[in-house]
Amino acid sequence: MRDVLVDAERRLERAGVPSPSFDSGEILAFVLGTTRSRLLLLDEVTDEQKVRIEQLLAQRLSRVPLQHLLGTAAFRRIDLQVGPGVFIPRPETELVTEAAIRGLGGETSQVAVDLCSGSGAIALSLGLEVPGVDVHAVESDDEAISWTRRNVDDHAERLAKVGSSVTVHHGDATTIADVGEPLARLAGQVAVVVSNPPYIPAAMVPREPEVRDHEPSAALYGGDDGLDVIRGVARAAAVLLQPGGLLVIEHADVQGVAAGSAGVPGVLESLLADADLAHRCAVPIGAPLFTSVTDRTDLNGLPRFTMARRVGGDGTSPVSRENES
Questions:
Q1: What CATH superfamily classification does 74-310 receive?
Q2: Per the count of CB atoms within 10 A, which of 78, 165, 223, 276 is most buried?
């Protein structure tokens, strides 16, 4: 066992694979049906197991994501099924989810919407960690939504035990609240809207092969400046949120406050009510839609997500509720 483990780690390291020790341990543990922490309690590896380890190792050396090889990804308190066609949830998004969970605490309305849901990581975390919440997960991509539904089905029993529900909607996150669309009926009723949308500019190709070659492009690229989907999400959120409701949007580390109008805080601060939004949000034409716009950093101190509150019905700032700070 030790020889096979050391050999796998060295090969991954020579190939420039990030975290070679972790990845080699996870591959061996997966094949042997144990956990990484218990590997060294074992001794022998059968020839059949060695063949399977070699097959998975060869794929990892070619930079197929580890999560695709194992079929699962850990996120907060849950394990999710993942594979080709759906974005693998990242640790940074756990902080975004935490902000949304705190935003639900103490709210009179327990309705939340996850736009660009992907694997369903955020939606399921909200439903499982906030008892009694009604979550709506919106995903437009045909491949990705199959994973959303699969993961929601996997956790259905746990959701029922805490009195929560997650409803999956196959639709465009930017238009899902338009008249005649599935979430139009929730206009002005939602406590929290959260989104990890595609936000990479079209010309900015990721360096990591795992992302560049294996993540679905629909989950990565957000138009020429990376903000096309975010602008649409902001409009949808303005319609869905109740006055004072919380919006949480993940973004790239170059799309924070310092980016000005090219950043997500700038997008939210500059969103004013046109005739349609004024009618649907019950605010004056030209009024801002969001207030208390703040940006948060990730564990590396980099700008990572923006939070904002929907203005009151008269276009003024509602009473601040900062339990998510």
A1: Vaccinia Virus protein VP39 (3.40.50.150)
A2: 78
